[in-house]
Amino acid sequence: MASDITLYWASGSVPSWRAMICLEEKGLSGYNSKFLSFQKGEHKSEEVLKINPRGQVPTFKHGDAVVNESLGVCLYLENTFKNQGIKLLPDDPVQQALVLQRTIEVDNIRDKAIGGIFHYSLRTKPEDRDEAYLKGAKKALAEELKTWEGYLAQHDGSYIAGKDFTLADTSLFPMLTFVVRNQLPLKERFPRLASYYERLKERPSVKTSWPPHWQTTPAPHLMKDA
Ligand SMILES: N[C@@H](CCC(=O)N[C@@H](CS)C(=O)NCC(=O)O)C(=O)O
Question: What does DSSP assign to residue 220?
Answer without folding.
Answer: P
